[in-house]
Design brief:
alpha/beta, Rossmann fold, seven-stranded mixed beta sheet, 12 helices
Length: about 290
């Protein structure tokens, strides 16, 4: 009887040891680092400044580009990259298997008179210099001048898998050539390709009206113009929504960060709001 009891005790100890070991391995597996996506690795890159990384909370680059369906082997056109906030994410992500082309502002050859275009030309020159100075980060980025309504061909017909525009449409609309730009982007996009648009969004009052200050656009209006250009709406996302944005500031969207056009006046108020409420729209070019 004593021998049987000892065998039972030994079996219990062995079983407990097995359970403990299994639990240890299970916990160890649960604490392993989850693999970081290639996009997230680029977003976390040491190349990006702390200031640019601070804007991730408003612009959600990983979620936004994932929503658009970007892949590392794609040929992508980024329209009017300005200071290159998205360029420094797109270029390294695409550099090994794909290709990034930027449709940049027209260079100043001495004939520009519009102060805004002169400023944009300086941004374009600085970005291209940054790309040239840091090939290890950006790789080989191609560029084309894009200055509507004069320079309207940022590539060959059916050239790109994806075309991206971040907060540009309100400028084209102000100048009266939003439809023309969308038609030009339609032409250079491959059939079945994706147009991704992020834009400051106005307040919707009814099915036929909206209200907002300078720099905002009605979401349904943007969709309608894109559809008129030939695109088909695939999906809409609230990734870049900001319910704190009341859209009624003296200088419109430019009162908010990063521009802070009001200077020190109510600066803390605008910083607390954050960047604008934005629509995020995904379109496709029909196969036929």
């Amino acid at each position: 009887m004593l021998k049987i009891r000892n065998k039972v005790r030994s079996s219990v100890k062995y079983f407990s040891l097995v359970v403990c070991c299994a639990a240890f391995h299970l916990n160890a597996a649960n604490t392993e680092t989850v693999p970081v996506s290639a996009l997230q690795q680029v977003v976390d890159s040491a190349y990006r400044s702390a200031e640019n990384k601070h804007r991730d909370q408003y612009r959600h680059p990983v979620e936004t580009l994932t929503f658009f369906g970007i892949r590392p082997e794609m040929s992508v056109l980024e329209v009017w990259p300005a200071r290159g906030w998205y360029t420094e994410i797109l270029a390294p992500y695409l550099k090994d298997k794909g290709q990034l082309t930027i449709a940049n502002f027209r260079q100043n050859d001495g004939t520009l008179e519009d102060e805004r275009k002169i400023f944009w030309a300086r941004l374009a020159k600085k970005l291209e210099q940054d790309i040239k100075n840091h090939p290890e980060h950006f790789g080989q980025v191609k560029s084309a001048e894009f200055d509507p309504p004069g320079l309207m061909q940022p590539g060959q017909v059916n050239q790109y898998d994806m075309v991206l525009s971040f907060r540009n449409s309100h400028i084209w609309n102000e100048e009266g050539y939003l439809l023309d730009v969308y038609r030009a982007l339609f032409d250079v996009l491959k059939p079945g390709g994706t147009l991704g648009i992020v834009e400051h969004r106005s307040s919707r009052l009814s099915e036929i009206s909206s209200r907002a200050g300078e720099g905002y656009l009605d979401e349904y209006y943007v969709i309608a113009v894109a559809q008129q250009a030939g695109f088909v709406l695939v999906d809409r996302s609230e990734i870049n929504a900001n319910p704190k944005d009341s859209k009624d500031y003296p200088k419109g969207v430019y009162a908010l960060p990063p521009t802070l056009a009001m200077g020190t006046l109510d600066k803390n108020k605008y910083l607390a709001i954050g960047e604008s409420d934005r629509m995020t729209l995904k379109f496709t070019k029909p196969l036929q």
